[in-house]
Specification:
0% strand, 75% helix, single chain, 8 helices, mainly alpha
């Protein structure tokens, strides 16, 4: 069902109707629709997802600034850069395929990136508590760090990016509910289901290719 373009049409209508019903801003509704298109195209491994991704994060940058989620403003800016890089990387390394091949992290890579997320979140939370009036400093920092790592892994077409997006969307449901971003709450709920489907589809694609793809060792090659 999620693979069917009709899912995107329905999800878009839901975001628009919910946005007007809840009297959300036009920019929030627009960002939500672009976000659904971005994640759905990403799950289908379409390079054009990066265009919608760039539009989405630029819109979110403005929204997060207005609501005091400053770490996520920085996240959105860096994600914008990663969308540009990801577009270049996917096309440059596609070989004979439509896009670059999917790879996986090694155990060492998983441990390394997990440690980076934990340490960076602790530092970012401390800085926000000390120097800003962020409304949700801990969740804000965690989501920001997860978003940066997830976007980097996505740009390199590494399968494990989906696990990070799934966790991030689950956390964002809490952030959006507590900050009154109700249309974005619906967006993240929809994206959560798309991310789960994207993980499944990328895994299937990786298994059915029947080609030896090298594991990525640690931070240097990730």
């Amino acid at each position: 069902m999620i693979k069917n373009p009709l899912f995107v049409v329905i999800a878009t209508i839901v975001c628009i109707v919910a946005g007007f019903f809840m009297k959300s801003s036009y920019i929030e509704i627009f960002a939500s629709v672009m976000g659904v298109l971005n994640v759905w195209l990403l799950a289908r491994q379409k390079v054009i997802n990066f265009l919608f991704g760039a539009i989405t994060v630029a819109s979110f940058m403005y929204i997060y600034f207005q609501t005091g989620l400053y770490a996520m403003v920085v996240l959105s800016f860096v994600q914008l850069l990663f969308n540009i890089f990801g577009w270049y990387y996917w096309v440059k390394n596609k070989g004979e395929e439509d896009v670059a091949p999917t790879t996986r992290l090694s155990t060492q890579g998983i441990i390394t990136w997990s440690a980076i997320i934990i340490v960076a979140t602790a530092i970012w939370s401390f800085l926000q508590l000390k120097y800003t009036n962020a409304t949700s400093p801990y969740l804000d920092a965690l989501v920001a760090v997860m978003g940066l790592v997830g976007q980097y892994l996505l740009s390199k077409k590494i399968l494990e990016n989906w696990y990070i997006w799934i966790g991030m969307n689950a956390i964002l449901l809490v952030v959006c509910a507590t900050t009154g971003l109700y249309v974005m709450f619906i967006l993240n709920l929809i994206n959560l289901f798309i991310c789960i489907d994207g993980l499944r589809e990328w895994k299937q694609d990786l298994n059915t290719n029947k080609q030896d793809t090298p594991s990525i060792e640690g931070l240097e090659n990730a």
